[in-house]
Amino acid sequence: MLFYDFEVFAYDWLVVIMDMGEHKTHVIINSPEELKTFYEANKGQIWCGFNSRHYDQYILKAILCGFDPKKVNDYIIVRGNPGWKYSSLFRQFPLFNYDVMLGTDRGLKTFEGFMGNDIRETSVPFDIPRKLTPEEIAETVKYCKHDVEQTIQVFLRRPEEFNTMMYFIKHFKLPIDFISKTKAQLAAEILGGNRKGESFNDEFDFPVLDCLDLHKYRYIADWYKDPQNHDYSKKQDKVMVAGVEHTFSWGGGHGARAKFHASGIFLIIDVTAYYPSLQKKYHFGYRVMNHPENFEFIHDSNIEFKRKGDKKARQPFKIMDNAISGQMKQRQSTLYDPMSNNSICINGQLLLLDLVEHIEPYCELIQNNTDGIIVRIKDYEKDFDRLDDIVYEWEQRTGMKMDFDTFMGDIYQKDVNNYLLIDRETGAVKAKGGYVMKLNDLSYDLPIINRALVDYMINGIPVEKTVNECNDLREFQLVSKISNKYTHILYGEKPLKEQCIRVFASKYSSDPGVRKVHATRKTKAKLTNSPEHCFIWNDDVKGVPIPDKLDRQWYISFAHKRLADFGVI
User: Fold this and answer.
1) β-strand 46-49 against 2-8: which pairing, if any?
2) Inter-residue long-range contacts of 59-63, CB under 8 Å, 24+ positions, other chains counted
3) End-to-end Cα, the chain, rounded Å
């Protein structure tokens, strides 16, 4: 495997390629001949980059075609065009390109920041209107190598994404160049997607399933069939269901007791692989699949390995199973079928509402979300058996399967997407949401706050103790990257060249705050969650001790504020 990254200037270009098999690094500067020789010798390998699907592969092909890479760079970056449109000659140079970047990623620099690595930008501007000096070339090579190394680090931290692609390419005997596709595109190929961007003109003609048994809340189902509501911007808001305020929209229904903390016996009742299970049971979306049997193989394997508890074998099937139903709302997908997507979303939330209606007299609803509910019961022996009978009847009627988890302890709930459940007897913990989830190297933002909240909720450790006893600066980092809606970041009134920075709260009032400048309105807005006074540390922060100027009290106050969001303080 090769990992690569291009840098393009007005009169210069360079590429750094790291060969993982040979453990060699190749640097090619302004030499189309050298690049072509390397390409011919290695075109059978998989080339990996970060955002290479949209950028780097087309710079490579442009140079191989004899084009000016700067013109292709501007065609993509400045004018916002897809690279493949620049020239049909690109097809003469096939490339097995794997993009490490996923659609939800915020950029390589953000990951570098989370990992605690150096996120300083090169001092060489990309719009420099002359040839680079030897010193500028050397600095650019240094930073390009750094980015390739960081791309490798991101790849190694989530190999399951690549392994999933390779598993299905091999299983279905597809050409290796399918590694260049997204998971969604690969799924569409495996399933034989047959739509070309056009719908069946029946987007809102979705069925409400006959198995639905709603009475008290039937009006919620009726709302979706009213043509006046066939507008995705409309929703049913502030609907009271089982004593909990709900919202029902075209994307799903949910409700939760906000700022809620309670003790007792809690049941998490989840539908197993809910949306794919609905899709299989009622053949939603089958009309846009030439090979629905492949979907059923993926889905059934996902369920089988889940039942066996084999997480490793299940992983590719789970990832691909979840990638399929969302394609029915993507106009560019060959699985485009908005009526079937609506069928899944609407019936999914209505069937869960059906279950809530039937169990409402026998428990307290804590939350109702896309694929499951949390309830509190009083008497485990009596109430569990009663609920189990109701759920069994619901399973038989709907064809879905449920999983039960029992927690005898406490729940802390901010909203439907942020909660912590603790079983005081077994020590088991279930956390959901950015405030309390266990962070990893690719999502390591304000980790001291998460730890302080969890330590307090689980073990009763005061927030002050967690914050004051931590001596690792990285634990206090806030990593902020501005989007293309903003031109630059201000530190006080000083413009920064970096688009991504690592911020820490400062005791010193002389240290300013950080703001972002809107590209069109030119207005200034504080970076999300940033302190009023801060210092910036953009070089490597791993193992760095706490400086005296770190304002620990700011983190303590921030943690208390988030605890209040969970109804604790």
Assistant:
1) parallel
2) 59/6, 59/8, 59/13, 59/15, 60/4, 60/6, 60/15, 60/35, 60/93, 60/95, 61/89, 61/90, 61/93, 61/95, 62/86, 62/87, 62/90, 63/13, 63/32, 63/35, 63/36
3) 52
DSSP state of 408: E
- CA angle, 72 as apex, 69 and 76 as ends, to 5°? 140
| Residue 199: predicted pLDDT | 67
Instruction: Please give the model's pTM, rounded to 2 decimal places.
Output: 0.91
- Euclidean distance between CA atoms 447 and 502, whole angstroms: 13
The boundaries of every CATH 3.30.420 domain in the chain are 2-158
Q: Name the pairing type of β-strands 494-496 and 24-29.
A: unpaired
Q: pLDDT tens-digit profile of 349-365?
A: 999 999 999 999 999 99
Please give the pLDDT value at position 452.
Answer: 97
Contact (Cβ atoms closer than 8 angstroms) between residue 427 and residue 408: no
Architecture of domain 2-158: 2-Layer Sandwich (3.30)
Look at residue 17 and tell me whether its pLDDT is greater than 70: yes
> From its phi and psi, is residue 313 left (phi > 0), alpha (psi between -120 and 50) or beta?
alpha
How far is Cα 472 from Cα 543, in angstroms, rounded to an integer?
A: 6
Q: What is the pLDDT of residues 324-346, one digit of tens each?
A: 878 888 888 999 999 999 999 99
DSSP 341-407: HHHHHHHHHHHHHHHHHHHGGGSEEEEEETTEEEEEES-HHHHHHHHHHHHHHHHHHH---EEEEEE
The confidence band for 322, taking pLDDT boundaries of 50, 70 and 90, is confident
Task: Please tell me the least confidently modeled range out of 209-213, 505-509, 563-567.
Answer: 563-567
Which of 529, 527, 473 shows the shortest CA–CA distance to 500? Answer: 527
CA distance 346 to 328: 14
Tokens of 47: 């080339």
Instruction: Look at strands 46-49 and 96-99 and give their pairing.
Output: parallel
Percent above pLDDT 70 for the chain: 99
Measured CA distances, 321 to 272, 310, 314, 331 (Å): 12, 16, 10, 19
Half-sphere exposure of residue 270: CA atoms within 13 angstroms, side-chain side: 8
**Which H helix or E strand runs over 323?**
helix 311-324
- Dump pLDDT digits (tens) for 21-41: 999 999 999 999 999 999 999
Task: Specify the CATH superfamily of domain 191-432.
Answer: B family DNA polymerase, palm domain (3.90.1600.10)
Helix or strand holding residue 220 (H, E): helix 218-225
What does the alpha-carbon distance between residue 55 and residue 72 come to, in Å, rounded to a whole number? 9
Q: Which of 508, 514, 501, 502 is nearest to 549 (CA)?
A: 508
Provide the 8-state DSSP code for 532. Answer: S
Q: Where in the chain is the domain with CATH 3.90.1600.10?
A: 191-432
